[in-house]
Structures are given as structure tokens and as C-alpha cells.
Amino acid sequence: MIELAFTRISAVGDSGRLLVVGPSLGTSVRALWSAVAGLLDDVEVVGWDLPGHGGGPVSAQAFTIEDLAAAVSSYAGSSAAGRTVYYAGVSLGGAVGLQLALAGQPFAAIGVFASDLRIGQPAGWFERAALVRADGTAAVVAGSRERWFAPGFVDRAPGPADQLLADLPEIDRDSYAFACEALAGHDLTAAAAGGFATPTLLVAGEADEVVTPAAVRATAELTRAPHLVLSGVGHQAPVEAPERTATAIQHLMEDPS
């Protein structure tokens, strides 16, 4: 099983709930989720980092979205300690959430942000993997700044945007490339046609050009899952709109149906 690093982002005494959160490609989970974690009530928040990202160990071999989901599920099952366990993830972390939603246990409900049954085209992911292997992750900083945030967000909130982007040049190039290749192989369209085994909320950013609201709406119709569109938000809702992200997760935990 692939080795992942898990980090406690926030803790509360005697909480009966555990929320596991997943990162977006190119981010550290702490930078992505810290603001949201501080707004959630009565839940311990633990995040996992992609290989070579944040606190994650470097990967020497390829991995799949299924591999990541298996590692997250194993951690959640062994760490629940009688608590109700939930999951939320963004982009690649959301793709892991979709894989988990098909499997059911151990999660009571799952929030999927800025993700879909497939994301982009395989050729694009292979091209990015090749670019990063050749030139390092610094080569994708400018493009990520454009893709990640809604128009005007970087000017309004340069601190949070720069903090999220700051980790990107330090990420291990091979681990990032393996993650791109995992996304190239991610396609749950056929598997999800019958719906999810776990209550799942699909959340889109109104200004997201990577995973558009129309794409999320189509997946919601296919899977009969509820969906939500956050106005004025791009691809990184926990940083762009932490209050609304926290509210969506809080409601999901309180009423998974």
C-alpha cells in the first residue's frame, strides 16, 4: 500500500467526529484546509498529503487514485476509535473522495470539491508530467496561479493565494508527475452510473474552468447526488471561500441525506 503522511490540522476534546481532508494537486493539505478547519465545530480534522507534497514522503513509483483511496480508507478505519468519520477533498483529493464514495464504509458522508468522475484529458496530464520531470514544479507555478483562483481573488487576497502557491516549487518533481499520471487514468464514469454507496455532496466553483459547474451538474444528474455551486469561487474553495466551505461541510455532517 502507498505510504501517505497524515497531519492533524485541528483537534477538539472528546469529539465524536473525525473529518479526513484531502489536497489538491500541487498543494499542501495544511495550507489548503487550515482556515476551514478553524471554522468547524466539534470535529477533529486530519489531512493527508500527496507523495512529495507538504509532509508527504517522496514516491519512487507510480500510483493510482485507487491506491490513494485505499490508503485513506485504511487510515480512517484504524483511526475512527468509535467516532463517525467523514471525508472532504479538493480536485485530486476530491477524485479520491469519489473513489471512496463508491466503496461505502468507513465514511458516513463525503464532500467533493472541484472534482469530477474524470478531470481533463489524459494527454494533457501526460504532457504536464513530462514538463515537470524536465523542468521541475516551478514550471507550473504561473499556470496554477491562473487555474486555481477566480478572477480578482489574487488581487483581493494575495496572502492566502501566495501561501497556497508557495509550496508548489518545493514539491518533488517525480511525485508530482506520478500524480498527474494518476489523474490521466482516473475515469469513474461507468462505475458511478448507479450512484454512490455513501451520501456525497458535489461542490463546484462558479468560476472554475478546470472542473466547470456544468460538468459537476452533469455528474450530479448521473449519480443522483446533491450539488452546490459557490458563487465567485474558482478551483480552491477552502482558500477562496473558507466560511462557505465550512458551512457546506458542517451541513453535510449534520444531515448526510
Description:
The chain is of the alpha/beta class. It has one domain: 3-Layer(aba) Sandwich (Rossmann fold). It is built from eleven helices and seven strands. Strands 1-3-2-4-5-6-7 form a seven-stranded mixed β-sheet, with helices on both faces. Helix 3 links the parallel strand 4 and strand 5. Helix 1 packs across helix 11 and helix 4 (122-135) packs antiparallel against helix 8. The two termini are 32 Å apart. The model has no long low-confidence stretch (mean pLDDT 96). Keywords: Hydrolase. GO terms for molecular function: hydrolase activity. This is Alpha/beta fold hydrolase. It comes from Flexivirga aerilata.
Number of helices: 11
What gross morphology would you assign?
globular
How helix-rich are the residues, as a percent range?
40-55%
| Global mean pLDDT | 96
Within CATH, the superfamily carries the name: Alpha/Beta hydrolase fold, catalytic domain
Tell me the radius of gyration: 17 Å
**Lateral arrangement of strands in the main beta sheet:** 1-3-2-4-5-6-7
The CATH class turns out to be Alpha Beta
Number of domains: 1
What fold name goes in the CATH topology slot? Rossmann fold
Largest sheet: 7 strands, mixed
Proportion of residues in extended strands: 15-25%
Give a count of the beta strands, DSSP E runs of length 2 or more: 7
Q: Secondary-structure element order, as H and E?
A: EEHEHEHEHHHHHEHEHH
CATH architecture: 3-Layer(aba) Sandwich
End-to-end C-alpha gap: 32 Å
Assembly level: single chain
Structural class given helices, strands, pairing? alpha/beta
What are the segments in which pLDDT stays under 50 over at least 5 consecutive residues?
none
Domain AB hydrolase-1: 26-247
Protein name: Alpha/beta fold hydrolase
InterPro entries: AB_hydrolase_1, AB_hydrolase_fold, Carboxylesterase_BioH
Keywords: Hydrolase
